[in-house]
C-alpha cells in the first residue's frame, strides 16, 4: 500500500498527515485514524497500511501539529519501561494542550479533507483511535453524526466525557478495553451509560492485555490483543461501510 504525505488545512494552520490506500485507481471508504499519545511513527504507518489493504483509504493526522511536525519528540525504536517516563514527560504538555475544543475544530478539517479526496468514495466514513486517540475518535463521531457511521476506540479513556457525548452518537461503536484499564464495576457503568443513550455498540475487555496493547513498538504489546483488534475493527467497518 502506498503512503502519501499530506498537509491538511485547518483553522490553526497546516496539519501534517499521511494516508495509506490501495493504488488501483478506485475509490474506497474513508477511515480517519487517530494515533496514540506517542504520535505518528513507523508502527502507525504499518497499521494504516494493514487497514488500507482491506480496501480503505486511511488518513492519519498529527494531532499535535500546532507544536510542529511529527515526530515532536525523539522516540526510541522500542518504548520500554525504562524510557516511558521520560518520553511521557515530554508528551504530556502536548496532550494537555489539545483540548476538546481543539479536537473538534480539527475534526471538522480532517473530515472535510478526507471526504474530498479523489480516492475516497461517497458516503459515510469511519473513525478509529488508540489510547487518547480513542477519545478523539469518539468526540469526532459524536460531533458528526451525519458523516460518521462507525467508530472504534482501543485502550482509550472513552468515558471521560460521559453521557453527554454518548447521547450524540449515531455511529456503530466498538470499544476494546485493556484488562489493566478497567474494573468490572467501571465497565458496567460505562456500558449502562451507552445503553441509556441508545447507542449500538460492542464493549469488551481484551483478555491478558494492558494499556497500549495494540502497539508493537512498546512493552505493552499483545499479539493476541492486536489480532482481536483487527477482527473487531474489520467486522465493524464491513458492517457500517459495506455500501459506500
Automatic annotation (TrEMBL):
Keywords: Hydrolase
Keyword Hydrolase: yes
Matching SUPFAM superfamilies: alpha/beta-Hydrolases
Source species taxonomy: Bacteria, Bacillati, Actinomycetota, Actinomycetes, Kitasatosporales
Protein name (Swiss-Prot/TrEMBL): Dienelactone hydrolase family protein
A single MF term (Gene Ontology): hydrolase activity
Pfam families in the cross-refs: DLH
Domain Dienelactone hydrolase: 16-239
Species of the source: Streptomyces pyxinicus
Amino acid at each position: 500500500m502506498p503512503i502519501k504525505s499530506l498537509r491538511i488545512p485547518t483553522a490553526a494552520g497546516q496539519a501534517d498527515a499521511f494516508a495509506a490506500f490501495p493504488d488501483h485507481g478506485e475509490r474506497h471508504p474513508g477511515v480517519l485514524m487517530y494515533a496514540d499519545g506517542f504520535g505518528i511513527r513507523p508502527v502507525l504507518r504499518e497499521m494504516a497500511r494493514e487497514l488500507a489493504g482491506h480496501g480503505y483509504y486511511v488518513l492519519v493526522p498529527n494531532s499535535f501539529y500546532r507544536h510542529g511536525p511529527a515526530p515532536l519528540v525523539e522516540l526510541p525504536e522500542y518504548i520500554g519501561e525504562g524510557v516511558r517516563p521520560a518520553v511521557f514527560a515530554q508528551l504530556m504538555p502536548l496532550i494537555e494542550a489539545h483540548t476538546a475544543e481543539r479536537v473538534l475544530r480539527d475534526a471538522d478539517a480532517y473530515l472535510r479533507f478526507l471526504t474530498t479526496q479523489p480516492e475516497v468514495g461517497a458516503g459515510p466514513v469511519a473513525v478509529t483511535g488508540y489510547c487518547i486517540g480513542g477519545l478523539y475518535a469518539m468526540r469526532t463521531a459524536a460531533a458528526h453524526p451525519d458523516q460518521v457511521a462507525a467508530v472504534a476506540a482501543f485502550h482509550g479513556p472513552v468515558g471521560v466525557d460521559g453521557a453527554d457525548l454518548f447521547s450524540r452518537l449515531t455511529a456503530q461503536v466498538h470499544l476494546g478495553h485493556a484488562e489493566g484499564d478497567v474494573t468490572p464495576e467501571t465497565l458496567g457503568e460505562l456500558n449502562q451509560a451507552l445503553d441509556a443513550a441508545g447507542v449500538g455498540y460492542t464493549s469488551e475487555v481484551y483478555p491478558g492485555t494492558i494499556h497500549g496493547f495494540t502497539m508493537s513498538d512498546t512493552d505493552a504489546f499483545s499479539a493476541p490483543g492486536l489480532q482481536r483488534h483487527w477482527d473487531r475493527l474489520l467486522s465493524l467497518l464491513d458492517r457500517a461501510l459495506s455500501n459506500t
